[in-house]
Amino acid sequence: MAESAACPAFQLGRPRYDQGSFLGRLRHFIDIIDPSTLFVSEKRLKESIKLLDDYNHGTLPPGVSDLQLWEAQKIKQAIIHPDTGEKIFMPFRMSGYVPFGTPIVIGLLLPNQTVVSTIIWQWLNQSHNACVNYANRNATKPTPTSKFLQGYVGAVTSAVSIAVGLNVLIQKANKLSPATRMIIQRLVPFPAVASANICNVGLMRHNELSEGIDVLDNKGNVVGSSKIAARHAITETAFTRVVLPMPIFVLPPIIMSYLERLRFLQSNRRLLLPIHSVVCLVTFALSLPVAISLFPQMSQIEVSRLEPEIAMATDCKVVTYNKGL
Fold first, then answer.
1. Average pLDDT for 228-244
2. DSSP per residue over 279-302, as a string?
3. 141-152: pLDDT as tens digits
4. Among candidates 79, 82, 67, which has minimal Cα distance to 10?
5. How much is the pTM?
6. Fewer CB near the last or first residue (10 Å), C or N of the chain?
7. Torsion (CA) 90, 93, 97, 100 in degrees, nearest 10
């Protein structure tokens, strides 16, 4: 009994952990961003895909455990795009987000940024985000590349303009002490990145407001398309995109401002960059799954709050929709 509780019965295409609880979502997203899947060999990937195909066709060899099937699904989902069936380029996989994104986070949070360095790091960050978004896009419906380009240009423009504008204002604030100015300057990346994320969501998903998104009944069947649900989905996603970078871009500057006052580091200044890098890496790795897990991927809304035609099409009192990431 203890073994089955630790490893639930395998269900193809379903999450291993309960998505109704925060802990279940946390364990699910830790699996998704697990960087160990970056080192899976081609042979192991093919074996995992074959194992899942055998399960699907009812030809599974005897002795295969649920744990092996869950592990095979984790590997396939980490590497293969669910809609296109093609391998996702390693730096743009969700499992590569922390290892490939950390150098950019370190650069964004370096003290004493110039206007040029601010522009370069914000551009690199939004370029990496845009590539990750495109590589992990929903490809069931063809989306024009122009939509992604609009989101990318809008995100880069808003991030750079806000970051540069805030830095210029801080430098002109003569009443601030040098220490206060440095702390505030280090916190600049957060509002810049958060606003860019909102801009990106708004530009890339504004067509959903006019076309609506699918809402599902309790059996997973599509009830209809709702513009009201789309508005809720975009608002929730935008809020999520503000919460996500908060710990990543706020905690390291606060931690470093304390560590830099330690006598040991004041006499060993060359250690500041390595320690700063470790603080960014640890904060990023711990914060990302926690932040993503705050909100369920599939959200629910009462039918009475939606369009009349949705209420007429189902007996369910609550329907579900994909919020998006």
1. 86
2. HHHHHHHHHHHHHHTTS-SEEEEE
3. 667 788 778 888
4. 67
5. 0.81
6. N
7. 10
